[in-house]
Amino acid sequence: MEDRVILRVGAKILIPYILLFALYVQFHGDYGPGGGFQAGVIFASAFILYALIYGLAHARRVLPLELATFCAALGVVIFAGVGIVTLLKGGLFLEYGVLRHDPVHGQHLGILLVELGVFTTVFGSMVAFFYSFAGRRTGRS
Amino acid sequence: MSAHLPVLQVLVPLLAAPLCAILRNGRAAWAVAMVASWTSLWIAIQLLTLVLANGTISYELGGWAAPWGIEYRIDTVNAFVLLIVSMIAAVVTPYALKSIEREVEASRVALFYAAFMLCLTGLLGITITGDVFNVFVFLEISSLSAYALIAIGQNRKALTAAYQYLIMGSVGATFIVIGIGMMYVMTGSLNMADLSVLLPQVSSSRTIPVAFAFLTVGISLKLALFPLHLWLPNAYTYAPSTVTVFIASTATKVAVYMLLRFFFTIFGPAFSFDVMQLDRVLLPLALVAIFSMSLVAIFQTNIKRMMAYSSVAQIGYMILGISMASVTGLTAGILHMFNHAMMKGALFMALGCVMYRVGSVHIDSMRGLGKRMPWTMAAFVMGGLSLIGVPLTVGFVSKWYLIQGALEKGWWPVAALVLLTSLMAVVYIWRVVEAAYFQEFPGDDDGELREAPLAMLVPTWALVLINLYFGIDASLTAGVAGAAARSLLGVGP
Fold it and tell me: Is the distance from CB of A24 to CB of A33 less than 8 angstroms?
């Protein structure tokens, strides 16, 4: 894609907004359509677009495969970790109400953290899937 | 903390999985898996003790009350299955260390343990939950990780086997979710206890019988009921030895549990057997599975494949017991879930030891192993005796109950078939015995081939001893299975 100036410049302009929109979908998930899964896919799509336009090697320098798989695992730890915290605070598993003094605040915080875990896992997995499929011919890193 | 045991049962392996993936070091991941699987076993024992003492345990996830929130509900039936699954996991993990280092690429060992823990999470989750949609979610977790586990070995044929399993398994899971969706449309509920109350009110509609049919086919695919077993022989044969041991001893048992849960608890035996006449489908298929798969097993030259076909036949025994829909028959079916897990676990572990030293489980490479690997082959013979159903092994106890159940119903030909197929098991086990003990070792006598490492022999023999212990004193297993059968049929404690 070295000679496709429009694509290269277009992608450069678009990518920050894709990332920002992903975060909007993430944090607005409590009130409107959206949530961790959708946000994670959108966030990953920015990296996939970057890889398509600028090449896999550049994308891997920005976000190595190891980091992507680490994110995929980390999200599950965040999710389960929230559950463990609620257990330790004397509630049932994932009973967000106990996270704060005010149960409503607790519910907000809990769902936000759990969705963050979902976001991290989905984002990491999507990028890792893309790398594994895209990198098949050039061999594994 | 004991109030949280139900969720910890699933949470411990779920947390272990990403930790294994993050650690990236095979040995460290193994240590995590070791801690997680033994903790799971401890929790499962605690839960079974609690259930036997105080009756059903209910746990509300997130503090949302039962019909709306997800509920974990543990009674005798699933407490017993939790014990089977976590016991096999606890025995398999120490065994895995050496076997996996030999059979899986070093860079993937940590990922293997991550997938293994996820598979354990899924299987325990299916078993423990009281919510039908949650069953589907955990089913996907366990199935997807099982496909990865089968494909992770160095055998390239494993890729096709895993792909075949992926297609068949996904069809099964789709059918199950369609059935669940139809039940949800008709009742508006996903909670098992709630569904069992609501379903009889709408069971005259056409949707519920269709949902029933989808669930029957979907679950039968998952438990490899003849003729939906085609994914199983390849998957078992080409997977790494440890994976074969784990999947063969747990995945199909959990699918049988799903069958019990859906048809006895949710639809109820009256609807399943009197209205839908499920036994008319299950009984012939079980009989054909037992007979034809035992016959096919006799002609296999790859011993792992032989054992895989034998597994399909053994699943037939479980389904046969269930299709009787009587206390004795169900007891036999549930008991055989435990017993078959232990005997097939021991057999596949012994084969894994052979694979570790010899590098093949073809019948020709078993020649003369009786002298070279005495403990391994002795374990195989003991497992084989249990499979045949020789007295003092668990196999005998299963068949005893099964034949009793058949005679109670007056099904003389069925009882005769069970005895006949036991003789067929003698034939295929004998082929291995003959090769191992009565044929000469083909290679030169430089004594290079040694006994398998202790880390693999000890778990193998642990399962063999369990086979013997519960074969001599079956009061615990048969007692729990009997209580489970009575609670499923709703005929008193």
Answer: no
Instruction: Delimit the domains of chain B by residue range.
Output: 1-277, 281-493
Which of A66, A84, A87, A92 should be substituted to probe chain B, the one whose Cβ sees the most B Cβ atoms within 10 Å? A92
Interface of B with A in 54-83 (CB under 8 A): 59-63
In-domain check, residue A139: no
Interatomic CA distance for residues B223 and B320, integer angstroms: 13
Distance CA B23, CA B214 (A): 41
Amino acid at B371: K
ipTM: 0.89
**Closest C-alpha among B376, B361, B391, B374 to residue B463:** B376
Q: How confident is the model at residue A2 (pLDDT cuts 50, 70, 90)?
A: low
Instruction: Give domain status of residue A140, yes or no.
Output: no
Distance from CA of B21 to the nearest CA of A (A): 6
Is the Cβ pair B22, A73 closer than 8 Å? yes
B462: nearest Cα among B7, B164, B95, B185: B95
**CA distance between the termini of chain B:** 28
Q: Where are the beta strands (DSSP E) in chain A?
A: none
| Minimal C-alpha gap between B242 and chain A (Å) | 23
How far is it, in rounded angstroms, from Cα B493 to Cα B330?
14
Q: How confident is the model at residue B446 (pLDDT cuts 50, 70, 90)?
A: low
- Spatial distance between the Cα atoms of A118 and A113, rounded to a whole number of angstroms: 9
Query: Residue A30 domain-assigned?
Result: yes
Triad B392, B396, B401: Cα angle to 5°? 130
Domain count, chain A: 1
How far apart, in Å, are the Cα atoms of B93 and each of B118, B155, B176, B463? Answer: 14, 21, 30, 13
Q: Read off the DSSP letter of residue A95.
A: -
Question: B63 and A91: CB-CB below 8 Å?
Answer: yes
Contact A39/A28 with Cβ under 8 angstroms?
no
Q: Estimate to the nearest angstrom the gap between the alpha carbon of B324 and the chain centroid.
A: 21
Range(s) of the domain holding residue A88: 5-134
Confidence of residue A140 (pLDDT cuts 50, 70, 90): very low
Cα(B86)–Cα(B270) distance, rounded to whole angstroms? 32
- For residue B240, whether the previous peptide bond is cis, meaning omega lies within 30 degrees of 0, is no
What's the Cα-to-Cα distance from B386 to each of B80, B466, B478, rounded to whole Å? 20, 11, 16
**Six-digit token string for B222:** 């998952």
Residue A98 pLDDT exceeds 50: yes
Kindly give, in sequence order, each residue whose CB lies less than 8 Å from that of residue B127, ignoring residues fewer than 6 positions away.
B78, B81, B82, B85, B254, B257
Dump the DSSP string for B256-323: HHHHHIIIIIIS-HIIIIIIS-THHHHHHHHHHHHHHHHHHHHT-SBHHHHHHHHHHHHHHHHHHHHH
Whether A141 maps to a domain, the answer reads no
Question: Of B4, B11, B63, which has the smallest distance from its Cβ to A80's Cβ?
Answer: B11
Subunit contact B21:A73, Cβ cutoff 8 A: yes
Q: For residue B292, which of B223, B216, B229, B385 has the smallest C-alpha distance?
A: B229
Residue B454 in tokens:
């202790």
B395-427 confidence digits (pLDDT tens): 999 999 999 999 998 889 999 999 999 999 999
Please give the structure tokens belonging to residue B468: 């013997």
With b for 16 or more beta-carbon neighbours within 10 A and e for fewer, the B90-100 pattern comes to bbbbbbbbbbb
